[in-house]
Amino acid sequence: MPILKPKLEVPLSSPNLPAPIMFRSAVAPAEGIYPLHQHAWGEFVYSFSGVMEVKVADHHYLAPPQYGVWLPPKLQHVGLNRYEAYHCSLYVGPQLCSAMPATPCAVTVSPLVRALLEHLRQQPPGQDATPQHLRLLQVLLDQLVVAPRAGSYLPSSEDPLLSAVLRLLEANPGDNRSLPALAHAAHTTERTLTRRCQRDLGMSLAEWRQRLRVVRAMPLLEAGQTVETIALDLGYGSASAFITMFKRLMGSTPDEYRRAALA
Q1: Is the model's pLDDT at 183 over the cut of 90?
Q2: Taking Cα atoms as reference points, which of 191, 6, 15, 161 lies closest to residue 89?
Q3: For residue 204, what is the DSSP state?
Q4: Average pLDDT, the chain
Q5: 5: exposed, middle or buried (C-beta count within 10 Å: 0-12, 13-18, 19+)?
Q6: Is residue 263's pLDDT more than 80?
Q7: Rounded Cα–Cα distance for residues 229 and 174 (Å)
Q8: Is the dihedral of CA 141, 92, 100, 50 positive or negative?
Q9: Which residues share a beta bridge with 37?
Q10: CA 181 to chain CA centroid, nearest Å
Q11: What one-character DSSP code corresponds to residue 151?
Q12: For residue 257, which of 115, 64, 113 has the smallest C-alpha distance?
């Protein structure tokens, strides 16, 4: 597993950033990892393609391209990605973090925030100190302050019964067993499993399974696999059923997502 270097050229022990807000982007190879670390400033992590994952203690935050992950200052965390990902971070000085959440969370990325991030990653290096660049970074932070929050796009659970079911589905996203059948496999009841899904995941198991399939489909789309092949591998009887689900969750068809990611 490749150990990735920090995107920011500032010692992690530093009490502050050279500028109030800073932006950096990088390409992370498959199975890349930023080992456990912390810093005095806040960080907003976003992936233009692929899926970045952030682990904080016992919580696992995962964000596909319509979400980012906010990490408040002085928080120990690990960053990783299963497949190659083009990602970025917005670093926010501790003096500007009070308007952002005090705990880590997923943040919904609006079309404006996405456009600002795309613009910033195309800028040549050495722009950090210019007034124009700093104003643009402040606009981006202002948009993140008012962006809707979420716990995690694909939350996890420490509950022994529920986590066993989630591991089954993660190992085989195309598993189409019904809720009663999955409950039986975990030696529990359908009612108990339903309650624990709502308690720990904040959604039904069916919704969680669809999100898992979207997350698994994204790198396959970027790698050039056909929609039909991906649909069948993920347990759908037809490409149209998969396309309908993908568009509902992502706001675009699989082919539209592929074109945007490759662009």
Answers
A1: yes
A2: 6
A3: -
A4: 91
A5: exposed
A6: no
A7: 12
A8: positive
A9: 77
A10: 30
A11: S
A12: 64
Give residue 156's pLDDT: 86
Residues contacting residue 195 through CB under 8 Å, at least 6 positions apart: none
Beta-carbon contacts of residue 94 (< 8 Å; ≥ 6 apart) = 16, 40, 41, 42, 73
Residue 106 makes CB contacts below 8 A (sequence gap 6+) with 61, 63, 67, 68, 69, 70, 149, 150, 151, 152, 153
| 200 phi and psi angles, rounded to 5 deg | -95, -35
Cα end-to-end distance, the chain, whole Å: 27
| Cα(21)–Cα(136) distance, integer angstroms | 10
DSSP alpha helices (H): ranges in 74-130?
A: 111-121
Average pLDDT of span 110-127: 90
The pTM of the full predicted model, rounded to 2 decimals, is 0.79
Q: Rounded CA gap, 60 and 156, in Å?
A: 7
- CA geometry: angle at 171 spanning 166 and 175, to 5°? 80
Which helix (H) or strand (E) element contains residue 53? Answer: strand 52-56
* Token pair of 172 as six digits: 């085989």
Burial readout 136-168 (b: 16 or more C-beta within 10 A, e: otherwise)? bbeebbeebeebeebbbbbbbbebeebeebbee
Amino acid making up residue 237 = G
Q: What is the pLDDT of residues 74-115, one digit of tens each?
A: 999 999 887 788 899 999 999 999 999 999 999 999 999 999
Q: CB of 47 within 8 A of CB of 63? A: yes
Q: Residue 89: helix, strand or coil by DSSP?
A: strand
